[in-house]
Queue: 2 jobs
Job 1
Amino acid sequence: MRLKRVIGNRLFGLWGDIRPGSLQIEVTNACNFRCLMCPFHGPENTSDRPIGFMEPGRYREVVRDFRDFGGSLVIPQGAGESFLHPEFPELLEFTKRTLNLSVGFNTNGARVTRDHLRLLIDLGIDEIGFSVDALTPGTFKAITGGDLEPVEQTVKMLVDMRRSMSVRRPLIRVLLVAQESNQAEIDDYIRRWLPVVDEIVIQSRRIQAGRVLEKPRIEPRRPCRHLFDTAFVQWDGEMVICCEDWESVSSVGNVFESGFRSLWRSRIMKTYRSAQRRGDYSPPAICRDCQAWAGGLESRRNENGKEITMTALTRVIRRGKESA
Ligand code: SF4
């Protein structure tokens, strides 16, 4: 079924009808943490976007439409913590059991209960990432305002449950946004988590509303993959061009009013795609100075029992073959 969708998408692409393989859907932009590096909830926030929760019936409509349009992966996250949505477990169940779609998302882990973890395993959720932005409790508190220990316990509980149930899913990763206050902890952080989880992701910090990297990107610019393969829908139905748009400045319309497919295929989206193919990165204005564009150079190496994949935005570390 999934293979059929992938082949279908390739064929549609040949006919000029690009269809999204992934849907990032924000169930809420509310959050219980106030992370320093978060462009939406952190101290540099300039957004006046209202805080809200997607109505479950709307979620089901959009995700079903995405599935019927050929999509395969749902990422139920946005500028908030998805587990704060009171019906998040039911939304996961609908996406996985009713629609049989792949599901992967990130959480800060602070509101995740044992029952949630059990559900993730029972549903066969494909991937989950826990934002664990420091090695030590003091640094974690300074960055997020929250407590490290319960989050670490939750990650370890999921690893133990998965092992005791002899299942392979979900893939479990921890994520850290590198910044001044945690920089000195990163090597020990990798040593600590490498034997525990499947993947460690060290992310570059985005500054200036999430679009300019702390360390400028030097590789030649390319058309951003986000415009071609992933649809982004915010909790109030606004379709924006990507997850970097924390302030909803690039909205192309509202899927609750205009429908998911017609916005994805809209003239404005087509204009953005063809402009990027020609090497013209604005409009939309948000793309002009963006260094967080998706795609680009990737390198892999093995080092001291670690398999490391590097891009301009992330360093992904997994256990290497020698230490398996
Ligand atoms: S170029 Fe940047 S702002 Fe534009 S779609 Fe890609 S990631 Fe988003």
Job 2
Amino acid sequence: MTAAPKSTAARLDLALAALAPTAFAAAQPASAPPAYVPPPETARLLDGPDLASAQRYCLACHSADYLTTQPRGMPPAFWEAEVAKMRTAYGATIPDDQVKPIVNYLTTAYGPPARR
Ligand code: HEC
């Protein structure tokens, strides 16, 4: 088997790399990357029974927006499936005895239509 001839671009890359490796390195700033400070959270969960459980177990990975933008008035089965998905697909560590209170919270707090 014969090696395929290198493209012009590949040969140019090789030539540049051989010519001035230190020039490329010097072009990079030596300082640390800028610190990223996320903006303050503005979304919050609605009031409801066992709000504290939902705050503790449902806001660890994402904003409350993920919950508040779901359709209103969904039955418990919808929220059961959602909580189960967070646990099995995304690895949320929610104790078994917290599932029912959280589903009840979500069904109750997000039952009425959203106020605008
Ligand atoms: C271990 C991390 C984690 C925890 C804890 C968690 N989630 Fe999620 N959640 C995710 C990920 C990852 C997504 C998908 C993100 C994406 O698609 O951008 C998601 C998405 C969602 C969505 C959007 C719709 C969907 O199904 O993708 C809803 C609603 C939601 N989560 C609700 C909850 C609720 C309710 C809880 C608490 C019971 C919870 N999450 C806890 C990781 C988590």
